Amino acid sequence: MDSNKLNWVAQFNYLGYIFYSESKNKEHREVEKRLQSMKVMANVIATPFKNTADAVKELIFRTYFSNTYCMSIWMISAKMQKSAQVAHNDCFRACFKIRGAHSITELFKKHKICNFNDMRKRSIQSLQSRIQCNDNDIISAISHI
Predict the structure, then answer these.
(1) What is the pTM of this model?
(2) Separation between Cα atoms, residue 18 and residue 72, nearest integer Å
(3) Most buried residue, 77, 87, 126, 127, by most Cβ within 10 Å?
(4) What dihedral do alpha carbons 97, 57, 46, 80 form, nearest 10°?
(5) pLDDT confidence of residue 110
(6) Mind listing the pLDDT tens digit for each residue in 3-43?
(7) How far apart are CA 97 and CA 51, in angstroms?
(8) Sign, CA torsion 98/103/105/110
């Protein structure tokens, strides 16, 4: 940029998330790590709040699972996206102590909570709008490539 050479790196860590420049398998491992931490959090939350009202559980679920950190920049396969969706659904079931065969779509609607795909779309749209409205010259240059 401006006759200064930029160094490329194979990976870098930003706020606990590791970005990889080449390998999608490494990116998938990072996403799997996020999904595993979601499942752990769901189990940690589910036990102490098992007897609370649904309104409280809804608030807790939205607080902890309404957005997964860096989801808007995940470069993942359809299979990995499906795994993320299943993990999100499992967290919902754990928080609300749902057992047996129930339509997860209907349950998300009943509790007025976004499912994983809607949540990811909103996250991507939010990132895109922030990039488009940004005054930073470097971000503007990169976004117009």
Answers:
(1) 0.73
(2) 14
(3) 87
(4) 80
(5) 92
(6) 778 777 777 777 666 766 665 566 677 788 888 888 999 99
(7) 10
(8) negative
Q: Contact 97/82 with Cβ under 8 angstroms?
A: no
Cα 78–chain centre separation: 15
Q: What are phi and psi of 140, to 5 degrees?
A: -65, -45
Q: Could you tell me which residues come within 8 angstroms of residue 104 by beta carbon, excluding any fewer than 6 positions away?
A: 89, 92, 93, 115
DSSP reduced 3-state for 135: coil
DSSP E strand boundaries for the chain: 11-14, 17-20
Contact 11, 23 (CB under 8 A): no
Nearest Cα to 31, choosing from 89, 90, 72? 72
Q: At what angle do helices 78-95 and 116-132 cross, to 10 degrees?
A: 120
